[in-house]
Amino acid sequence: MPIHTPGLPGNIPPADVLWARWALLAAIDATTEAEASTYRTGMWVDHDGLHYEDGGCTWWAMSRVGEGRFVLYGEDESSGVKWHKPPIDMLAGGPDWLPFDELRERAAGYELGCVYWFEDGAWSRAPYPEDLRDDGLSCGMSMFIEREQVLDALSARLLESAGRLDAEGILSDAETRSLTPDRLVDVLRPETPGDEPPDRPAIVRALLLAGIAVPTAQ
């Protein structure tokens, strides 16, 4: 289903599903070297949550904020929210558990394009004026929101011997928190032929940290 512009809460899958898709793609490229870096780009998972940073004009983060509560926020250059006149309060109607200090600091620095929060099984956001054309959700997050895009990205990183059905099974297991790390790592290939093989220990750590995999039985 196409994502409306500006985004609607109903465009986003349940938070645990979105989390699983994002975390799976982030884990694929996890490396021990990147874990120790103070500056990262691409996708990654850490103790603060999920991150996407393209090194240019797009960044996103998703964090758990207690049981059944998540916050999704970031910016894509397509967003007109921060430039809108009169200003849009992206935190209007937000619950008291949002990370207000960080969000307000980013908004004050014109670094924030939109904020969505998930509670009681549903996504919400602040109301937008009718003349707002885009908040960046579609351009910035479609790669995780649209399941087919996730499958395309995953399939492109699997060995030729693994097909679309393997990607479908891996993604389904991640979405149900039943993925065994070996099922993924054993069929992964480097992004570019000739690159170092996937960093198995780092990938396993990322999968387990994100909570989308079960430890491999010893």
TrEMBL record:
<protein>
    <submittedName>
        <fullName>Uncharacterized protein</fullName>
    </submittedName>
</protein>
